[in-house]
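Journal club side-thread
Mid-discussion, someone asked how the predicted structure for our own chain would compare to the paper's figures. Pasting it here so we can look after the session.
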Amino acid sequence: MTLLYPILLPLAIGLLTLLYPKREFKSYLNPIYFLSMITVAVSFAVSVMIFRLGNISYLFGVLPASDWSGPGISLDLVASRFSGFVLMATMFFGLLISIYAYRHLKKTYFTYLLWTIGASALAILANNLVVLLLAWGAVALLLYLMIAQGKSGSAAAANKALVMVGGSDILMLIGAALIYFYTRTLTISEISISLDSALPIIAFILLLIGALTKAGAMPFHSWIPDAAESAPVSVMALFPASIDKLLGIYLLTRLSLDMFKVMSGSAVSIAMMVIGSITVIAAVSMALMQKNLLKLLSFHAVSQVGYMVLGIGTGIPIAIIGGLFHMLNNAVYKTALFFSAGAVEARTGETKLAKLGGLARYMPLTFAATFISAMAISGIPPLNGFASKWLIYQGLVETSQAHTYTIFFLLVAMFGSVLTLASFLKVLHSVFLGEKPKELANVKEAGFGMVLPMIILSVLCIGLGVFAQIPIRYLFNAVFGYEITGLGFWSPGLATILMLAGVGIGVIVYLLSRTKKTRQADVFIGGELISAQTSAVMTLPDGGQTITSVVDINEASVPGTAFYDSIKKVPLLDDTYRAADTKFFDIYEQAKKITEPIIKAFKKLHDGLLHTYLGWIFLGAVAIMIVFLVAILK
């Protein structure tokens, strides 16, 4: 019965919040907010207990196979070490998002949030493919409902997300049917198939597409950048940043290690590594060009999936653990980055990089959280992003001993980290370290409910990196029974001490340099004074003074996005970026172009006139009669 609590409690309280008579509240007097937060906190506590208990199950036959001629459908819930860990992580991020979301005044937001957490728990614990797919579809529907609560344009983004994620759900359903045809069971723990014939490979690919679409890997990613432009920031933190990654990579791992046997060096393994590498490099290249903070973060949410798919696809234990460790680390720093962007938007009302700047002084905690998270996602040691990427690198090196071509995947992964760092240097300069626009006059730090989750996640970015051997040894080794004790020759503890010593020396040098007197002078461009005022008094060479016009400080500032625009003009890259801007690589848009003429044709056939419908009924009746007569004559 313990396994039912993290499922039923959020679902029941979510229904209760929906029935609450008021529609909207003041942010500081919102009983639904506090009720939701308490509900998720209790669910998180139960998930911790489930993880500690280890392998437990709850069996309940909904439609046993003995009762009819079809497959058995049961509400069998099973918690292993792995599923218990993913459940605990899901509840943890759900709790942080419920704390962060105090600014949401509509009660339906909290209803959908609780239902998403409950449905996610069911998908994680389900031991029956039908139940898993039902929960999976419910999460997709809730994704649609939550994105649609955003600003202008959110309806189109929600429709796109529903079509893409829902379409992949249909493919998963076909894959599940193929598995039943091949094994005569839908119980996940009883499925173990070798990928040595066409039918299992097709079933694996269909289920793989569902997992990759949920996680946001290319080419099934395009719903994420579109949603970033209009969906509430907390929804982006909930889905692409955390829960969707946890669910998608969880299913991918179950497919690769349990339900099917993906062997290192096999065609399926190579295909997964190719998908992972393309996702890493293509998505981060698109992030490099973005001028909207949220859209930039959304492409990084896509790019980081590539490392997870790459690690799991190798089939090497150390790389698999690296991929799963990266799943956790990505959820930590990516959620923190979306939280930071949300805080910036809440205080400035702006997400365009060119219209931001100089906020580090006014939002120091947000800046610190963004800086730490940005360094973590870029793989800078000794933070958590480096630790998980380092394991993946080691796995690729180990794989290269038998398959030399995997060195290419290693180079792509490392180059992806370089481009990630480059794009986040742009973010830090444009948002926090550049010149502050005069429109942002009264900016102050975000509220406690926003800052607290960012601080918690920033501390985790540091802790999971400096003490990386602890989760590796006591979490991932315990989950999979591997004997990986650390990060090879990399010692995070020693590296941290040396880095802190370097920082300390740098601080001392800086403080000593401040003892020197410095001269402050006006700044000129082409002989014109730069000022925030409309006019200024300038001292002439002969000692006299005159009033002069000035160059507006906003016009003189150089946005952090300007330098990166030159990359678009590089030969070969210019055509690629131009094609990407026209959504040439977007499978949703390309499919839309193909299906639109068909849809228009059917619309013309359904004109609402009675005689048209009577004609179709008559033709249908004639067709049925012809089929019936042919059957009799045979």
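Post-session note: The first strand starts at residue 56 and ends at 58.
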